């Protein structure tokens, strides 16, 4: 089955700096790659996703890149703000279905 | 909008006790699922349902039962709780199985002593 690895497990940046979180997946048939943000005491919330027919997707300060050959994808957050502090999860699935495998999570702290 | 509602938010059980975690959604979503979240292990799929009357196993189904008698409700049952089931449980729903975005509840923290 699919295996998703996520790095780093913790990341601390200064406000205004960029943050990058990387994930690798094992199943070459995976074609849907979402990123979720989980704030303290809340459930995860989708922030951006990418499908395998696209190499990069941007939404304001957030971008995701996908390298199908290397089987890895990354989340990029620019101009970080304290409210970006949260746990971020990557995930991968086959045929876009929601039975997806999640990474272990990255705790991002943005210091003011 | 209420979205996905889980109850209870916190529960402490003794080994061997049974309980049900409730999940309800008001978005008319066909797909519903249960995940458990453990430190360093991300979210792991327990069971899912693609519609009323249909359920299937996920990655870690042992020790859990589910049913889907209505579109709105998807309860998770622990028949004989074990300490290994201490975790935070999340219910999630989506319009359909293959439409991407999952909407999560706020979680239920379960401790089994």
3D structure, described in words:
The complex is a heterodimer of chains A (112) and B (113). Chain A is mainly beta. Chain A has strands at 4-7, 10-14, 19-25, 30-38, 45-51, 56-59, 62-67, 72-77, 86-94, 101-102, 106-111. In chain A, the strands form two sheets. In chain A, strands 2, 4, 5, 9, 10 and 11 form a six-stranded mixed sheet that branches. Chain B is mainly β and 113 residues long. Chain B is globular. The model of chain B has no long low-confidence stretch (mean pLDDT 95). At the A-B interface, strand 4, strand 5 and strand 10 of A face strand 4, strand 5 and strand 9 of B.
The shape of chain B, in one word, is: globular
Biggest β-sheet strands, sense, barrel of chain A:
6 strands, mixed
Q: How many alpha or pi helices of chain A?
A: 0
Morphology of chain A: globular
| Rg calculated over all Cα atoms of chain A | 13 Å
Backbone CA Rg of chain B:
13 Å
**Which sheet architecture does the biggest sheet of chain B show?**
7 strands, mixed
Mean pLDDT of chain A: 94
For the residues shown, what is the average pLDDT of chain B? 95
N/C terminus separation of chain A: 41 Å
Count every beta strand of chain B, where a strand is a DSSP E run of 2 or more residues: 11
How many E-type strands of chain A?
11
Q: What is the structural class of chain B?
A: mainly beta
Strand content of chain A: over 45%
Q: Counting H and I runs of at least 4 residues, what is the number of helices of chain B?
A: 0
Oligomer: heterodimer
Distance between the ends of chain B: 36 Å
The proportion of strand residues of chain B reads: over 45%
The topology string of helices and strands of chain A comes to: EEEEEEEEEEE
């Amino acid at each position: 089955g699919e295996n998703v690895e996520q790095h780093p497990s913790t990341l601390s940046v200064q406000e205004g700096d960029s943050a990058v979180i990387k994930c690798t997946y094992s199943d070459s048939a995976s074609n849907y790659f979402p990123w979720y943000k989980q704030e303290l005491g809340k459930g995860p919330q989708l922030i951006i996703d990418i499908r395998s027919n696209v190499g990069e997707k941007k939404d304001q300060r957030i971008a995701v890149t996908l390298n199908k050959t290397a089987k890895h994808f990354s989340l990029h957050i620019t101009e970080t703000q304290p409210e970006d502090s949260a746990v971020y999860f990557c995930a991968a699935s086959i045929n876009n279905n929601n039975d997806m495998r999640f990474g272990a999570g990255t705790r991002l702290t943005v210091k003011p | 909008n209420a979205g996905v509602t889980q109850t209870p938010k916190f529960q402490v059980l003794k080994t061997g006790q049974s309980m049900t975690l409730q999940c309800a959604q008001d978005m008319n979503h066909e797909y519903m699922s249960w995940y458990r979240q453990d430190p360093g292990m991300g979210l792991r799929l327990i069971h899912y349902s693609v519609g009323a009357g249909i359920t299937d196993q996920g990655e870690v189904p042992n020790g859990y039962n589910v049913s889907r008698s209505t579109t709105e409700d998807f309860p998770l049952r622990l028949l004989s709780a074990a300490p290994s089931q201490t975790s935070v449980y999340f219910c999630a729903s989506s319009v359909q199985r293959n439409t991407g975005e999952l909407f999560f509840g706020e979680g239920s923290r379960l401790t089994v002593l």
